[in-house]
Design goal:
Elements (H helix, E strand, L loop, with lengths): L4 E5 L3 H11 L4 E5 L2 H11 L3 E4 L8 H11 L6 E6 L4 H10 L3 E4 L4 H35 L9 H15 L4 H10 L12 H4 L7 H7 L2 H9 L5 H12 L20 H16 L10 H11 L6 H9 L1 H21 L1
Parallel strand pairs: 1-2, 1-3, 3-4, 4-5
């Protein structure tokens, strides 16, 4: 990320000099002495952090913090109050205004360096997580680029997968990871021609053979990363077309040899495809879906997973309703 910028705000030149001595060797520092200079510096320099005095000549620090938050739409700038006020009321007001920490003057250099470093490390984690999510968004949409009817399918399906995984016995952390990995299950379709993906009729034998290569292509792409989310996504991409009775592809795996991750995502994918309107079909009634999935137990899917699906159906339908509202609001906003 390079050297991060910190904006130091104080109306006393001596206090600015002290903070400069403490932090100048580790960060790029920008200084301001009042509210007007502060807001101008925020717009110009986009600092990662503001060290903010409360008793400024033209505005109190709490209100200034709120104005900084209004400018910073991404909520990336961390504000630490550095002040001579030692009472709990001022400290509480600082946190209420949006500050992440409160340092009392006279400052201790080791405390300042430690607090600043700790909060900036959280900024790095947030940026990294956002980068992962953006990469996942791009890969998920790229894998469905030629699917004209996808819409919010991959994200809704991912939410189903998380709910199923938790009920299947996965812990919260791994279930959340599966929700991130699931949208990338069809990444391998990047290697399949548009003519095959968009063919209006059934695929012939040669076209079907090409289509069946997309799990391996997806695995080859996603497994290049050692990040856990992409390793899990690679596993899902490779095995999401395997079937419980061994009739799936590409490996003809059966039963417990199929990774749970792929089996869960496959069921979530099928449920979403059946329950939602597509250009070529109307949504199936829930009774018909339950009958179809019940008949697939022991063939396409693990019978235990189908039992779990039926048990949490109200939760899955609630997820579906939430996404329906989200889609509607997105369309209205557009």
């Amino acid at each position: 990320m390079g050297i991060q910028t910190i904006l130091v705000v104080d109306d006393e030149p001596g206090n600015l000099a002290i903070m400069g001595e403490i932090l100048a060797n580790s960060y790029k520092l920008v200084f301001a002495r009042n509210g007007r200079e502060t807001l101008a510096a925020v717009v110009k320099h986009r600092p990662a952090m503001v060290l903010l005095d409360i008793g400024l000549p033209d505005i109190d620090g709490y209100e200034l913090c709120r104005q900084i938050k209004e400018i910073d739409a991404s909520h990336a700038i961390k504000v630490i109050f550095v002040t001579g006020y030692t009472d709990m009321a001022h400290e509480t007001a600082g946190f209420d205004a949006g500050g992440v920490d409160y340092i009392v003057k006279p400052v201790s250099p080791p405390v300042v360096r430690a607090r600043v470093a700790a909060h900036l490390s959280m900024v790095r984690v947030t940026v990294l997580e956002r980068s992962y999510r953006e990469a996942i968004l791009m890969l998920g949409q790229a894998g469905h680029y030629n699917d004209a009817d996808t819409g919010a399918h991959i994200w809704r399906m991912a939410a189903y997968a998380r709910a199923l995984a938790q009920e299947y016995g996965w812990d919260r952390e791994r279930s959340a990871l599966l929700e991130l990995a699931a949208p990338m299950h069809d990444t391998g379709k990047l290697g399949i021609s548009e003519a095959i993906l968009r063919k209006p009729g059934p695929l012939d034998e040669q076209e079907w053979a090409i289509m069946k290569t997309h799990p391996q292509i997806g695995y080859d792409i996603l497994s290049k990363s050692n990040a856990p989310v992409f390793q899990l996504a690679a596993e899902v991409a490779l095995r999401h077309h395997e079937k419980w009775d061994g009739s799936g592809y590409p490996g003809g795996l059966s039963g417990k040899a199929i990774p749970e991750s792929a089996h869960i995502v496959a069921l979530a994918d099928v449920f979403d495809a059946l329950s939602m309107k597509r250009p070529y079909k109307e949504p199936w009634p829930i009774e018909r879906i339950l009958t179809h999935l019940g008949a697939s137990a022991g063939k396409h899917f693990d019978p235990e997973l189908i039992r779990i699906f039926s048990g949490i159906l109200p939760e899955l339908l609630d997820i579906q309703r939430q996404w329906t509202v989200t889609d509607h609001l997105s369309l209205v906003a557009a």
